[in-house]
Amino acid sequence: MAITFHPDGRVTGTTVKSPGSVIQTITNVSTTYAENTTATYSDTGLSATISISANSKVLILVTQPFEMKQSSVKMRGDLRLMRGSTEIYGNSSHQSYMLENQTNDTKYLAQYVSLTFLDTGASTGSNTYKTQMRCHAAADNSRIRVSDNSAPASITLMEIAG
């Protein structure tokens, strides 16, 4: 059977799936602006869904523009990766990103954040992945936002044969 590479990243027609090989790739790009000023996680608007075979793993690659602002000695915020409603990459009990100095002047941190994670706990069938963000504390003019000025964020999901 011939191997066919589809524009959406699917590969069909192959029956050979040696362990570690890439079976399919799904990519989504978002330029949707999102902001959070609270200590409660909220969606960034970046997500993608992949349907996988039994025994497969999912390699997740995320690149996301990320900006924090706060008027205190420490500026702290979190970005995490979710599979459905389960946190699979992040640190909910501590800040992911922090900038500190000895004044209460307003601080800004703007950068592209890259996350890479191999999900070995994904279920056979459909799995949706997304990123979420929060301020570590909702005080002192705290703000965290993504895709300001329509800066592109991307998520790539790769099904890896088990």
Computed structural class: mainly beta
- List unreliable stretches of 5+ residues: none
Shape: elongated
CATH architecture: Sandwich
The percent range for helix content is under 10%
User: What's the number of helices?
Assistant: 0
Notable features of this structure?
elongated; 13 strands; 162 residues; single chain; 5-stranded antiparallel β-sheet; mainly beta
Fold and architecture overview:
- The structure is a single chain.
- This protein is an all-beta fold.
- It has a single domain, classed as Jelly Rolls.
- The protein is 0% helix and 60% strand.
- It has no helices and 13 strands.
- It has strands at residues 4-5, 11-12, 22-30, 34-36, 42-52, 57-71, 74-83, 86-89, 97-100, 106-119, 125-135, 143-146, 153-160.
Structure at a glance:
The protein contains no helices and 13 strands. The chain has strands at residues 4-5, 11-12, 22-30, 34-36, 42-52, 57-71, 74-83, 86-89, 97-100, 106-119, 125-135, 143-146, 153-160.
Fold topology:
Blueprint: E1 4-5, E2 11-12, E3 22-30, E4 34-36, E5 42-52, E6 57-71, E7 74-83, E8 86-89, E9 97-100, E10 106-119, E11 125-135, E12 143-146, E13 153-160
Antiparallel strand pairs: 1-2, 3-13, 4-12, 5-11, 6-10, 6-12, 6-13, 7-8, 7-9, 7-11
